[in-house]
Amino acid sequence: MKTFVIVTLLLFFTGLAQSQESLYIDEKGDTINKNEYLKKWRNKDLLLSTWSHIDKNGKTYYTLKKDLYLKGIFNYSETIKQLKKITNKNFKDSTTILIEYYFKDDLCTSSSVKNKWDVDRITERKFFTNPIRDELKNEEITMITLFENGIIIENKPKRKSEYYYIDKDNYFRNKFFKNPTLCGAYALFKKNGETVIRNGEYRPDQMAKHLKPEIWKHFF
User: Fold this and answer.
1) What are the boundaries of the signal sequence (predicted)?
2) pLDDT tens digit sequence for 57-110
3) How many separate domains does the chain show?
4) Cα dihedral across residues 220, 47, 141, 138: positive or negative
5) Cα gap 24→27, rounded to integer Å
6) Cβ-Cβ contacts under 8 Å for 35 (sequence gap 6 or more)
7) How far, CA to CA in Å, does 173 sit from each of 43, 99, 101, 189?
8) What is the CA radius of gyration of the chain?
């Protein structure tokens, strides 16, 4: 899995430096060692996500969180209103919204490009997601990719087919994606207000499968 490889590489390179430059924190807020961190994070039954960040002194923090999945019932009309404000596009009242969200300062990518998505990077990502988005559209699922304010994206907002946008006022960051996770997060919004959020690296088509009644019923 891409996320695990990234974290493993981060741990390897930081391990070459002095041990006090890295700190590992579990989902309870307790400090643990690197092996304990990896063991917990690998355990799928624990439903943990992770976030890595570097403070102003150069110390790297690896933090586990008990928030792989979150759920809630929110005002669907307000969600649509905010998406219209961001995208300047209209959405069908019956559509299910799937949001892919990227966080600022995410160490999922190299430090030199983590807060910038240029044309080449967007094109490469869309080569993967465009076919998936088209399939989802046939199922009345609208996929939108949002970026936390502070990330630079070279998108084309006036183009009808565009679906990459900045969360300008950080409405979605503050309302739904409150805790950053490595390699982004996803959320599904149904018209009845039921909402499921999955934190961490994933695929949009995998996220959409949660809408199957036999899976969705475990959330609501």
Assistant:
1) 1-19
2) 999 999 999 999 999 999 999 999 999 999 999 998 889 999 999 999 999 986
3) 2
4) negative
5) 10
6) none
7) 27, 11, 8, 15
8) 18
Q: Taking CA 53 as the corner, what is the angle to CA 48 and CA 58, rounded to the nearest 5 degrees?
A: 145
Q: Which of 184, 192, 206 is nearest to 71 (CA)?
A: 192
Q: Please report the beta strands in 179-220, taking only residues with DSSP state E, as ranges in sequence order.
A: 185-189, 194-199
* pLDDT at 17 > cutoff 50: no
Q: Is 112 in the same domain as 13? A: no
Q: Read off the tokens for 6.
A: 């990234």
pLDDT at residue 6 tops 70: no
CA distance 90 to 84: 6
Phi, psi (degrees; rounded to nearest 5) at 93: -65, -20
The pairing of beta strand 152-153 with beta strand 116-117: parallel
Q: Locate 124 and state its tokens.
A: 């490469």
Token reading at 218: 């475990």
> What type of residue is 42?
R
Rounded mean pLDDT of 121-142?
Answer: 97
Q: Between these two residues, 90 and 18, which has the higher pLDDT value?
A: 90
**Roughly how many angstroms between the first and final C-alpha of the chain, as a whole number?**
29
Residues 90 and 171 in one domain: yes
Looking up residue 204, the CATH number of its domain turns out to be 3.40.30.10
Pair 37, 62: CB distance under 8 Å: yes
